[in-house]
Amino acid sequence: MSHVIFDNRINLEEFSLKFQNIVQDKPFPIKIDAIFLDKEKKRALIPVISDINSQEFMFEMISMNHRTTLRIVAEENIAKPDFAKSAMGLITKSVLRTFSNIRIFSTNIGNHIPKRIVDKNDS
Question: How far apart are CA 116 and CA 37, in angstroms?
């Protein structure tokens, strides 16, 4: 299963407040514009939308005491694994841009994490 494990606990409420919409055109059209937190603010669902066959799917971010995990919910239903990994890479880069003290502890999608992301607020 595709995943990213961060080396520290991420404050998901702070991440959701600072989150900026992500829009990518190439190599896959991707739009990420919402984060939904659970009542305890330890889990977040992040919906991803694509123009490829109007595909939508969810990522789950789970914040524990010393680690935070990002994973695809129901990965077996995703028709384009590279598309899903690309979206996960964009979310990962957003986390790293938001929190300077967070690093990647472990991942199996390293090639899909962009060096820089351009969001709709960049000029």
Answer: 26
